[in-house]
Design goal:
Shape: rod-shaped
Radius of gyration: 51 Å
Structural class: mainly alpha
Order of helices and strands: HH
Distance between the termini: 150 Å
Largest sheet: none
Number of helices: 2
Number of strands: 0
Length: 127
């Protein structure tokens, strides 16, 4: 039989038997490594999310800049179109003036001294 030491139960903490120091140190190192790995994962995840957000922001800003540039181009084209339509209307008015039958008949008779083979009446229907 083994002898039981009644004083051993009431010994001071320094006197109590503990786990070997190297096993305690290994356990502590493992916990620290696990914490560091978790912190590293968290930091990498945060950096990844930040990079993703920056890329999305850059994409949105570049799209907005493209839209603004296109809007300026469209506004410029609208102005050019308006000017061209005004010029076209003026030229069309000139075409109508120059192609009027009265003007052509007047130039033919007075300037070119032409005479019609048959009498011509402008502006009324022969029926």
């Amino acid at each position: 039989m083994m002898a039981i030491d009644p004083m051993r139960e009431y010994a001071l903490p320094a006197e109590r038997p503990t786990q070997p120091d190297h096993a305690q140190a290994d356990l502590t190192r493992e916990r620290q490594r696990a914490q560091e790995a978790a912190q590293t994962r968290d930091r990498l995840g945060l950096i990844g999310v930040l990079i993703f957000c920056v890329l999305i922001a850059l994409l949105l800003v570049s799209r907005y800049a493209t839209l603004v540039t296109n809007n300026y181009d469209v506004q410029g084209l609208k102005i050019v179109l308006s000017h061209q339509q005004t010029r076209d209307a003026a030229l069309q008015s000139t075409v109508y003036e120059l192609s009027s039958p009265t003007r052509i008949l007047n130039i033919a008779e007075n300037v070119l001294k032409m005479t019609p083979a048959t009498p011509v009446v402008v502006g009324t229907s022969g029926r």
